[in-house]
Each structure stands twice: as C-alpha cells, then as structure tokens.
Design goal:
The strands form two sheets. Strands 3-4-5-6-7-8-9-10 form an eight-stranded parallel sheet. It has a two-stranded antiparallel ribbon with strand order 1-2. It has one domain: TIM Barrel (Alpha-Beta Barrel), CATH 3.20.20.100. By secondary structure, it is α/β, with parallel strands linked by helices. Helix content is 42%, strand content 14%.
Length: 269
C-alpha cells in the first residue's frame, strides 16, 4: 500500500474500497473479500443505505480498528449545524465506531450555501472533539472552496471529486493541491466500457503486462489521487489491489491525460 499525508499529518491509504450500491445482502461477502485482498480503507456514506451492514462486516472481520481507515459523508437532507451533528452520531452508531478517520460534506448546497457553511462548522466541532481524525468535502468547485475558506477555521483536508481519464480535473486538482487539500477520485475507472476499451490505455496495459483497469488505477495513484474502486466480482477486487508493483512513465501519464473530454459520467456539480 502507498499512503499520502493529509495537511494535519494523518496518513490516508491511496487505495480504498467503495461501498456505493452494494446491496445490504451482499455487504458481508463484499467486505470480507476486500479485507482478504488487503483493503483497509473503506469509503462509506449515509445515503448509500448500508452503513449498518458495513459496520457489522468490518467488526466481524477481526481487523483492529487502528488498522482501518473509514470515511463517511453527511447527506444533503441533513445539512445544517445541529442536523449534521445528529447525522454524524447516527453514522457512528450504524458503523459501530467510536470515531471516523474522515468525514465529508457529500455535496455543496448550491441553492443555500449558508447551510453548507453551517454544516462545515459542525464538521469543525466534530474534528475539535476528536470524533473524526480529518474532515473534508466532496464535489466542491474552486469557487465553492474559496467561499468556504473565507469562514473556515479549519481548511478541508480532502476534496472528493469525479475523476477518470475522460475527466481529469487538472485545474481543480492543482487548486486543491496548492491549498493543502488531498484529491480523492470517485468513479476512478469511469464507466468501464468507455475507458477500458480505449486503444491508448490498452497499449499501455500490454506494455506493463497489466489490465486496462489496473493501468487506469495506477494512473490515478501516480497523479496523486486517492481512489476507491468498487466491484462485486472477487477477481476484480483482487486485481484492483494489485497495482503497487509498477509505475507509469511520464509519457504514459501524459497520454492518458490527453484523453480528457471534460466528460461527467455522474452528476454535474
């Protein structure tokens, strides 16, 4: 595993396991498979509707709490100071944890950004109380981050954004980095067929004797993004973890960067 340091010195594993859209009935097997493959970083959220099952599976895994890195997020409907504190407590209870490693605002509220600022104040309290080792945001633009900076006592330590070869997020990623914010990328492989059948990516994969998916994940890590691919296929779960025995060359990274179409494959922020 490779790690990156957050602005407060906390180490975050560069590769995690995503829990989005994992059915409640499949969580136990999915988490066990991920643990067996070597994953210790798990990305969760209240809106995913499976935190109770994820919490039980992690507890049943027998892995020590200090060896896990667990992220969750406050959903839009729970934004606001008091409601965020209540949502956080429910997430802790559902996950059967005493603290989170990272807590994020899932989306900025574009219609009422003051509500998002109040939510951030709640995250600052959670952080000050030691209930989350780090706090951050997700899906924030540069403009929204600047508005947050104007009132924040603690800067976000992470910005989790959509990122794949068809949307490389170069400008936002640079802004984050320049401001001490670690970039996380969701949908790291994009929508498989759009990316994994790409001629350039497959050419690079052949040169490294790796799969197209492994090359894309390695590109993410080599360009400084923390990622958490999700798969229900046990072989894919193992293969996605097998990316730490090679690096891409600068030229290969440039080739993949050149595939950018600024193409959102999820919701537009």
């Amino acid at each position: 595993m490779e790690f990156q340091k957050l602005s407060n010195g906390v180490s975050i594993p560069m590769l995690g396991f995503g829990t989005y859209q994992i059915k409640k009935s499949e969580v136990a097997d999915a988490i066990k498979g991920a643990i067996d493959a070597g994953y210790r970083h798990f990305d969760c959220a209240h809106i995913y509707g499976n935190e109770v099952e994820v919490g039980k599976a992690l507890k049943d895994s027998g892995v020590k709490r200090e060896d896990l890195f667990i992220t969750s997020k406050v959903w839009n409907a729970d934004q606001g100071y008091d409601s965020t504190l209540a949502a956080f407590d429910k997430t802790l209870s559902d996950l059967q944890l005493d603290y989170l490693d990272l807590y994020l605002i899932h989306w900025p509220n574009e219609d009422n950004f003051q509500l998002t600022l109040d939510t951030w104040k709640a995250l600052e309290k959670i952080y000050a109380d030691g209930k989350a080792k780090a706090i951050g945001v997700s899906n924030f633009s540069e403009e929204q981050l600047k508005k947050l900076f104007a009132v924040a006592k603690v800067k976000p330590m992470v910005n989790q954004i959509e990122r794949h070869p068809l949307k490389t997020q170069v400008e936002l990623a640079k802004f984050d980095k320049d401001n001490g914010i670690v970039n996380e990328g969701y949908s790291p492989i994009g929508h498989g067929h759009l990316v994994l059948q790409n001629e350039t990516i497959n050419k690079i994969a052949k040169a490294h004797n790796k799969s197209a998916a492994q090359v894309v994940l390695r590109w993410q890590v080599d360009t400084g993004f923390v990622i958490f691919p999700k798969s229900s296929n046990p072989e894919h779960v193992k293969a996605n973890f097998d990316i730490f025995d090679f690096n891409l060359t600068d030229d290969e990274i440039k080739e993949i960067n050149g595939l950018d179409e600024n193409k959102h494959l999820n919701y537009d922020n």
